[in-house]
Specification:
This protein is of the alpha+beta class. Helix content is 35%, strand content 13%. A three-stranded antiparallel β-sheet has the order 1-2-3, covered by helices on one side. The longest helix is centred in the N-terminal third of the chain and has 12 residues, at 18-29. The radius of gyration is 15 Å and the shape is globular.
């Protein structure tokens, strides 16, 4: 949760938020070797999606929690800043994570994914 606290995203009354969970999980995953981190991420996908991903994506070059990106002004649908939860840049692949605490409430939104891409 160091990144969560460091980004001043915390509110102790809201300690169960998705940001604290994201920080707790990914801080620990980032302790793994690059190969093991990729193995975990790849195997976290459903089986069909995992078969379309490469076996090796190389070295983890960069990671960032809650990057704040300017909108792409060429896209009419996106006029606001976007903030994915985690950005991971490997040598051969970029990964955006948009974490939600409870999947059963259908909180993932395709429009949010498209804007972040």
């Amino acid at each position: 949760m160091f990144y969560w606290v460091g980004k001043k995203k915390y509110d102790l009354a809201d300690a169960q938020c998705e940001d604290s969970l994201t920080s707790s999980v990914f801080e620990r995953l980032l302790l793994l070797s690059d190969e093991n981190l990729w193995w975990v991420l790849r195997n976290a996908c459903d089986k069909q999606a995992a078969t379309t991903l490469p076996d090796n994506v190389g070295k983890l070059e960069k990671f960032e929690f809650w990057p704040s990106w300017e909108p792409d002004l060429k896209l009419e649908r996106n006029s606001l800043r976007v903030e994915p939860d985690v950005f991971l840049r490997f040598e051969g692949l970029d990964i955006l994570v948009e974490a939600k605490r409870y999947d059963f409430v259908q909180s993932q939104r395709e429009e949010q994914w498209q804007n972040e891409l």
